[in-house]
């Protein structure tokens, strides 16, 4: 499931090709995904110019000249495919729910086989009041996400820190992968009670979260060529995680230290957590 760095990478890829362009056509293949797509959605996009993009948590907002913002959530399996005016178009993708074409011949499709994604429309000046966005916590890469802010949000919480960091009201954009990575980097056990991370450990955790996300974004792509894969899919390269999905593999921090059994896996709230049992306290 795409987390903040993947969504950021997809958004930058869209921005590189759509910003400033007028949409000649937008068409929906169905009226709903995870939720109903608002009636008139395609008509509102058609003829509008794309002015800018914004990411909020795992959501992409595409702003249009008429004052609308399009909300895009990739869900579990959603992806965007982009083709230029001189590309040979592949056969129509199954599960392509939205197609947008620019006046200069670019074509962007939203493909989502499992339909956990969503598309919505709202006035740009009311983005933050949207039902899915209004309760969101701080953006982890913003300067206002500080150890003090995280400490205040975690104070007295009795859930494990792993669960707290997945809670989008505490901090947005993190999922199972980057929570495991950031906790490893900060040396904090995923099982530690969130309330006990406030203070000194939050001063380790906040920079660990920021560095983990920044490195993943940097690995995702630095030019349009990086963003667009040969099949037109706007995506990201799965880069080298230090703990995620590495159960039983050597731990980078401990090396050959016999005290570390290697990267270990536990299940918390039904989801896997990967960590070093030796150094994460
Ligand atoms: Zn270790």
Task: Explain what this protein looks like in three dimensions.
The chain is an alpha+beta fold. The radius of gyration is 20 Å and the shape is globular. The longest helix is centred in the C-terminal third of the chain and has 21 residues, at 200-220. Helix 1 crosses helix 6 (200-220). The chain has helices spanning 4-18, 41-45, 147-154, 161-166, 176-186, 200-220, 224-227; strands at 23-28, 50-56, 59-64, 68-73, 79-83, 96-102, 107-111, 118-123, 233-234, 264-268, 271-275. A five-stranded antiparallel β-sheet has the order 1-6-7-5-9. It has a four-stranded antiparallel β-sheet with strand order 2-3-4-8. Strands 10-11 form a two-stranded antiparallel ribbon. Strand 2 (50-56) and strand 3 form a beta hairpin. The site of zinc ion has 7 residues, from loops. Belongs to the FPG family. Keywords: DNA damage, DNA repair, DNA-binding, Glycosidase, Hydrolase, Lyase, Metal-binding, Multifunctional enzyme, Zinc, Zinc-finger. Monomer. One of its GO terms (molecular function) is 8-oxo-7,8-dihydroguanine DNA N-glycosylase activity.
The number of strands is 11
Enumerate how many helices there are, as a single number: 7
Principal-axes shape call: globular
Radius of gyration: 20 Å
Strand content: 15-25%
Structural class: alpha+beta
List the helices and strands and how they pair.
Blueprint: H1 4-18, E1 23-28, H2 41-45, E2 50-56, E3 59-64, E4 68-73, E5 79-83, E6 96-102, E7 107-111, E8 118-123, H3 147-154, H4 161-166, H5 176-186, H6 200-220, H7 224-227, E9 233-234, E10 264-268, E11 271-275
Antiparallel strand pairs: 1-6, 2-3, 3-4, 4-8, 5-7, 5-9, 6-7, 10-11
Helix pairs in contact: 1-6, 3-6, 5-6
The protein binds zinc ion (ZN).
């Amino acid at each position: 499931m795409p987390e903040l760095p993947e969504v950021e990478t997809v958004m930058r890829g869209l921005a590189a090709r759509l910003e400033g362009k007028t949409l000649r056509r937008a068409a929906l293949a169905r009226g709903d995904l995870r939720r109903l797509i608002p009636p008139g959605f395609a008509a509102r996009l058609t003829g509008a110019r794309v002015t800018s993009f914004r990411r909020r948590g795992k959501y992409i907002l595409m702003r249009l000249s008429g004052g609308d913002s399009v909300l895009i959530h990739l869900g579990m399996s959603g992806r965007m495919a982009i083709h230029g005016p001189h590309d040979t178009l592949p056969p129509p993708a199954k599960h392509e729910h939205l197609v947008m074409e620019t006046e200069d011949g670019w074509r962007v499709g939203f493909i989502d086989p499992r339909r956990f994604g969503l598309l919505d429309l709202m006035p740009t000046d009311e983005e933050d009041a949207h039902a899915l966005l209004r309760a969101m916590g701080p953006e982890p890469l913003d300067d206002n996400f500080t150890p003090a802010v995280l400490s205040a949000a975690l104070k007295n919480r009795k859930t494990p820190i792993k669960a707290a960091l997945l809670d989008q009201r505490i901090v947005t954009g993190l999922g199972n992968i980057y929570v495991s990575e950031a906790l490893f980097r900060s040396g904090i056990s995923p099982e530690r009670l969130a309330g006990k991370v406030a203070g000194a450990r939050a001063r380790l955790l906040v920079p660990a979260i920021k560095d983990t996300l920044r490195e993943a974004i940097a690995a995702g792509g630095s030019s349009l060529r990086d963003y667009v894969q040969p099949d037109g899919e706007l995506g990201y390269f799965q880069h080298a995680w230090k703990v995620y999905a590495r159960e039983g593999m050597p731990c980078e921090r401990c090396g050959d230290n016999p005290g570390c059994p290697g990267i270990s896996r536990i299940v918390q709230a039904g989801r896997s957590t990967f960590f070093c049992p030796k150094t994460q306290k």
